[in-house]
């Protein structure tokens, strides 16, 4: 199977569907009053990540039927992808903004209150565990894969604080993961997202819409599943260590402040705005 060919087909399919579907999703959210304020205090559609769920699902199903390989893994990915998108959408629509961070949701849970963030964390862990059980060899790899997928799922959300930042982090991480993978066959799930971002990213950069948790969660899950499925155990352990450090730092420092104080990071962050 020609991996390059599959990746290009995946990219083209997603790009075409994204260009067709974006105006419909945008207007649906706008007409349904699913809005939030951007940094300019303008009301814009939130949860545009719903576009990701729809386009990615269609594209990956079509590619899966075409390649007829690893269909169970592809379907597990899609089930988890759709489910994490739904709980992300729920968090967007009725989430309590007063409860912040992983610690905050855990504290609320033990006080007898289930937050949408807590539900998202629980569902995300369950998805990661189910996928990991199927693709792993041995208990250690199950544990590593579960944590890698779960922490990647939350990673993009940590950076979704400025226009275009989450998408840029996804693209950068995708390139790094493809360069360090031992099997690039599954990279079509990344290329299909590249196709979506060709249409979506310019709108995000100009603060015309926001992806919301439904978007950041699905981006993160995709990175996690790709990493777990295409990397050696040693590589995944390294990624896991980095992810844990990043998650811990997010509780103590502001990534936005770090980016603003670094010239190179600030340049990348402002690119396209």
TrEMBL record:
Transmembrane segments: 6-26, 47-66, 72-94, 114-136, 142-159, 171-198, 237-256
Cofactor field: Mg(2+)
Any GO molecular function: metal ion binding
The UniProt record lists the keyword Cell membrane: yes
Positions with a binding annotation for Mg(2+): 157, 213
GO biological process: cell wall macromolecule biosynthetic process; cell wall organization
Identification of the protein by name: Phospho-N-acetylmuramoyl-pentapeptide-transferase
